[in-house]
Each structure stands twice: as structure tokens, then as C-alpha cells.
Amino acid sequence: VFVGGLSWNVDNEWLSEVVCGELEIKEEDMISVRVARNHMGRSKGFGFVEFTTPELANRAAALESRDIDGREAQFRMCLPVAPRSDKPSDRRPNKVNRRPTRLQPLNPASDTLWIGNMPWQATRDDLENIFSTFGVVTRVSIPTDSDTGKPRGIAYVQFDSDEPAKDAVDEAFCGNGFELDGRNLVLDFASPTGQAPPRSPRSPGGPRLDRGPRSDRGSRSMGGKPRTPRRGASFDLRE
After folding, report:
1. How far apart are CA 130 and CA 159, in angstroms?
2. At what angle are helices 54-61 and 12-23 packed, to 10 degrees?
3. DSSP class of residue 200?
4. What per-residue confidence (pLDDT) applies to 141?
5. 174 pLDDT tier (thresholds 50, 70, 90)
6. Contact 153, 183 (CB under 8 A)
7. How far is Cα 80 from Cα 85, in angstroms, rounded to an integer?
8. Structure pTM?
9. Alpha helix locations (H) across the chain?
10. Residue of higher predicted confidence among 195 and 106
11. Beta pairing partners, 159
12. Residue 195 three-state SS
């Protein structure tokens, strides 16, 4: 169960006591209680409680909200991440269902986030300000279109380890998510294969052979005999 809106003062023990008191259960009924913290050890304002049975988790999610240390904390059920297959066809059965409702990440955990639905005017500083609360950001990349130079609407944020990226994804899928300039950001872990190489700006399928100006094409007739060059032609008729 995800617990958001926590006061900075709430730690694991405090959250555990609140949950036990509200549900009238014992600590043995919980597998773990974790308040997420950044690289400086400060609370990020949310946490997770794992229970021994689904019934207890449902009861906790039904609390919806409770006052903890003067702040209204929200309780929500986290959707489990399904086991991943090594076959790309199993992970992405078809194009339509590739990223339908963003209920869970598609790629395995890594230290780099893939971010979609970016506003065109977003900057690296905007992203660093958002995600530096989860850990040390080592790189921010906003790819641009090779033809127009405009942003492609995606970005990559890399941390110094996997844990900050996992916390950010947890917040995206189980918490309140992220909004930038009125757009809800879509998060996933970056593909382990990395970014695709940029395509040639002249040909989407591969390099374009330079055949010279259109006026110079067909300088030989069908029979293979040289034709008299037109004025200004630059090709060489030497065999």
C-alpha cells in the first residue's frame, strides 16, 4: 500500500504505529514499512507498507486518508508489477497495447529514467529540480529531432544508482505522479539497449547516395554512348 502526503517527521516506526492502530493489527502482520528518503536521508513525503495478506492491504487502502502529524496522509493500493519475460514479444504483444494506461513500468529497473509526454518548452533544469529530490542526478538529456532541432517530447534522467530511479517510478505509478507545465509526465526505466542511433536527415531508412544535381542525371543514353554535356554540366566524360 502506498502512503502519500506524509509529514517530514514521520519515520518507519511512526508509520507502523499508525497503521497498527488504525487496523488494530500487530507488527507481525506487516512484512515491511518503509518511508522513502533521498540521498541526504530526508523523507520524501511518502512510504510503502507491505502486508502479510491481501485482505489487510485492502483494509489499509480503504482508510483512504488519515491525519498524521497534522497532515492528511493518503492510502492507496499499489498495483503489482508482473514478472517480466526475456522475449520482447511477451513484453509488448502488440503496438496498440504498448503503453496503454501506464499501470506498470515496461523495462527492467536501471539508474536511468525514460520520461515521456514532455512539454516542448521543458528544460534540463526543470527536470533536475523535479528528480533531484530522489537522489543525485548525474545526467539529463532531452533529445531533439535531427531535421527540425525541436524537442521530441521525451527525456532521460540518470542517477548515481538504481534506488533513486526506483523511488521515482514508485511515485509515478503508486503516488501522485509528476506534472510539468500542465502535462502529466509518463515514466519508465530507460531501455537497457540505450537510445537508438539517429537516422540520416536525408533518408529515414539509411544513407542517401549522392547522385548529383537532378539536371546531371541520365548523362548517358540508353545505348551507353556519352551525350553532349549541357551548359554548366560538371560531370566528367572521360572513360
Report:
1. 13
2. 90
3. B
4. 93
5. confident
6. no
7. 15
8. 0.46
9. 12-23, 54-61, 88-91, 124-131, 162-174
10. 106
11. 137
12. coil
